Amino acid sequence: MTENVVTENDEVLFDPFAPGFTDDPYPQYRQLREAGPVYQHPLGFWLLTQHAEVSDLLRSGLSVEDRNLGPSPMRDLREQAGIDVDPRAGGLSMLDRDPPDHTRLRSLVSKVFTPRSIAALEPEVTALVDEALDRIAEAGSVDLVEELAFPLPFAVISRMLGMPPVDHVRLRELTAQLVRSLEPVNDPATLAAIAAADAELSAVIADVIAWKRDNEADDLLTALIAAEHDGDVLSDEELVAQVVLLYVAGHETTVNLIAGGVLALLREPDQLALLRERPDLAGAATEELLRYDSPVQLSRRITLEPHTILGHVIPPGSFVIASLASANRDERFWGPDADQVRIDRPDARRHVSFGGGPHHCLGAALARLEARVAFGRLVERFDTLALDGEVEWNGRINLRGPGRLPVSVTA
Ligand code: HEM
Description:
The protein is an alpha+beta fold and 411 residues long. The chain has helices spanning 26-35, 51-59, 73-81, 101-112, 115-119, 122-139, 144-149, 151-161, 168-178, 188-214, 220-226, 236-252, 254-267, 269-277, 282-292, 324-327, 331-334, 364-381; strands at residues 38-40, 46-48, 141-143, 228-229, 232-233, 298-302, 307-309, 312-314, 319-323, 384-387, 392-393, 402-404, 406-410. It has a single domain (26-410), classed as CATH 1.10.630.10. It has a four-stranded mixed β-sheet, with helices on both faces. The protein binds protoporphyrin IX containing FE.
């Protein structure tokens, strides 16, 4: 091992449960990058924080399934919680599967979730944003998460799928529970709550699919039910898992991009002014805001065989965590202004916020569309847009973003 590996006898450099981390994780990530590109935590997992290694890891095709692993702290936790399957890695969604299943699930879903079907949504997305902005204009002072950042992606994915009128409040609670499976979890009670939410949400979606079989329409659910690729179709359980993934990923991530992006602009008034002057920069600004505050901060992989990174041999059965958020601020890659927002940064699109390699985000075009329209229309519509109180973060380590963003506007 070289001096770049911090071993278990050394100081703990990564502590996502430390006070303040979920408000601002970037100082810890900076320290980690300074310590070196590969860090082994005393608990045994590995963490990558620099752009080059994170990009390579995502493209490496390492496993995402942990069912083949031997004893692990997560397994111990599951036993204490009385559940035998990890609600995440036990799932049948493409996010948690390796080839050949990943390849077939992804091709079946990609067949109906196409760039063309997403581009066609622009008028509907614009209308939804404008309706939200009307309500905001009338109120004058609002929580932007509640009035725009959450309802927009929630409405878009619900309409795309063709969800029937269901209890949206309960569904929102369940998805909020379920996304905790993507967070580092360190207590059995949380794990049990996640597993219960997973079971309930899957049951609701199974009912929705049964209803949709008798109520076909021009929507994604109908298309997914009918999807066939080279004679292959989704099994009932696979269908439920892909729909849960699209539904949850469809809004629990984009909310962070819209709210985090607006907050970043509010904190850098010259950049907000630049966007106001040059609304044609809304697409470029979306890339820069994705880079600046990664809506999904971490991605994890599992080694089933020895894996070498910069001469460090990571043994089989290890968790390797890639900090997308840290890679997006790596000064070695982005230069000395990595911690600043520059909406006209020429290479901002090289961020890793949508992951990379075989699991690269399937919804990237949809997220980009929603954010670009939201940022662009906000500055076009309002002469002033200002923070109007304390920002509260959502307390998450991975799907991190503002939980409350009070703003005031004048038209
Ligand atoms: C995968 C980020 C929005 C659907 C991913 C991954 C990331 C990501 C990082 C890869 C995870 C990994 O490799 O471990 C984001 C961000 C979004 C966003 C930052 C918004 C700003 C969406 C939307 C949808 C979506 C709107 C769909 C409606 C998916 C799916 C996968 C995925 C289906 C799994 C792909 C696979 O495993 O092959 N996303 N996502 N995402 N995302 Fe997104």
